[in-house]
Write a structure and sequence with these properties.
The chain has a single domain (about 5-130), classed as 3-Layer(aba) Sandwich (Aminopeptidase). Helix content is about 35%, strand content about 30%. The protein has helices at about 15-25, 35-45, 95-110, 125-130; strands at about 5-10, 50-55, 60-70, 75-85, 115. A five-stranded mixed β-sheet has the order 1-2-3-4-5. α3 links the parallel β4 (about 75-85) and β5 (about 115). The radius of gyration is 16 Å and the shape is globular. This is GNAT family N-acetyltransferase. InterPro entries: Acyl_CoA_acyltransferase, GNAT_dom. Pfam families: Acetyltransf_1. It comes from Paenibacillus alginolyticus.
Length: about 150
Amino acid sequence: MKEANVREIRVSDYHDIYLLNQDFNPNLNVFSKEKVKEKIEIITKKTKDIIFVYEQNNAVIGYIHGSPYELLFSDSLVNVLGFVVKKNDRNQGKGSMLIERLEQWGKDNGYSGMKLLSHPSRMHAHRFYERRGYMFTKDQKNFIKKFT
């Protein structure tokens, strides 16, 4: 029997998180394991964000990153900043366990709902969200400016 649980992230999870990011998008390899470790430390110590991991047999095979989201025109939400389950472990209920845990955390902490972005090509992910009561609201273009 496989030992599995959903728990809060630990700094020691950085290697598995790095591998999950690679699994999700190989272009993320420029963000080193050491940088992932630093980010976990910053996020867990200096922000109000929460990251839950799905651990199975002492390996992290999925995570979801939620961040409090405050707007001047909406009740408080939890913004999903990252949500990854290892490719070979998808469609087995592990992602459902992660998102349900984050939703419960949001409810317990007084948030009115959750918000997330999903790439237009990720049709399976869109169906996953819609089955859980998420509604498509709008197409957007994302812009970024790097400081040099």
